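Summary: Need help interpreting a holo structure output

Steps to reproduce:
1. Submit the protein chain below together with the SMILES for NAP.
2. Request a joint structure prediction with the ligand placed.
3. Inspect the structure token block that comes back.

Expected: a single structure record containing both the chain and the bound molecule.
Actual: see attached output.

Input attached:
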Amino acid sequence: MAAVKNTAKTFKLNSGDSIPGIGLGTWQSKPGQVEKAVEAAPRAGYRHIDTAFAYGNEKEVGEGIRASGVPREEIWLTTKLDNPWHKRVAEGIDQSLKNLGTSYVDLYLMHWPCSLDPDHEGKAYVDWDFVDTWREMQKLVGTGKVRNIGVSNFGIKNLEKLLNDPSCKIVPAVNQIELHPGNPSPKLVAYNNTHGIHTSGYSPLGSSDSPLYSNETINAIAKAKGRTPQQILLVWGLQKGWSVLPKSVTTSRVEANYDLDGWSLSDDEVAKIDAIPDRFKVCQDGWLPVTVFYGDDE
Ligand SMILES: NC(=O)c1ccc[n+]([C@@H]2O[C@H](COP(=O)([O-])OP(=O)(O)OC[C@H]3O[C@@H](n4cnc5c(N)ncnc54)[C@H](OP(=O)(O)O)[C@@H]3O)[C@@H](O)[C@H]2O)c1
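--- attached output ---
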């Protein structure tokens, strides 16, 4: 049997492009730290970096990619349209490209299905919503500035609304959602699959101070396989069929999180992780003026 190469795993998108299965996350990666982490990732083998305008670090992310020495075109770069930019999509992508110091991104996501009025802080527009934003995002395809467009934090209700609107001509290539054993979302993942939307899993390690690192099931499997809990969580996600976006600003962790080749989880081990009963969610919608999660993201 050929050796398992988890790091070579890619997923085919509905556009025909292939997204690398493991991407470095950069949320909460602080200035002065993120460039080093992004530089270390391609050197360790990563070919996918996930950022967002809202993270305030696009400039350093671009610098990190250039410092890595790996050519830009070999790296899958994702960024996201921020909520107060929904009526300014063309400006939003231009600003992100400028920050990143690149002429295109591989994937441009609508960060949240929430269109905020920048002139009235914290308030949603009354004459505009995410369907209007998607109409504008579709216009970016063919400009050379974005290779793919997608969404993030969309549950089934909002996806239905988007896909059923006559203005929706392009099915999102990706829905980036929170996915880890504490928030496995099987119905939403199945919905994405049925509609040809690739699922990308954010907070795959359970985010900062993850309770998963002390989970008995994860630790027992990690010990039995001579692996770290983080490596188990990442391979679980890849085997479930989604891409994973582990974040770290610690070079040794960036490297360890990519040391995933030559082994896999058995069906029994995957089933044990699937059966972990404890639920928690890293990203809620209480900070937004509109409901995003209707319990349909499970
Ligand atoms: N679309 C969205 O709305 C959305 C929301 C959340 C996240 N995301 C994306 O998904 C990415 C990942 O999610 P996340 O940042 O919430 O969390 P995560 O990747 O699940 O976990 C990151 C945390 O785990 C620690 N860590 C990483 N590797 C480790 C290791 N080998 N051993 C011990 N600790 C380790 C990191 O610490 P150090 O950094 O200190 O090493 C950090 O505290 C984000 O960075 C972002 O790109 C997207």
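--- end attachment ---

Reviewer comment: The radius of gyration is 18 Å. The mean pLDDT is 97.
Status: needs-info
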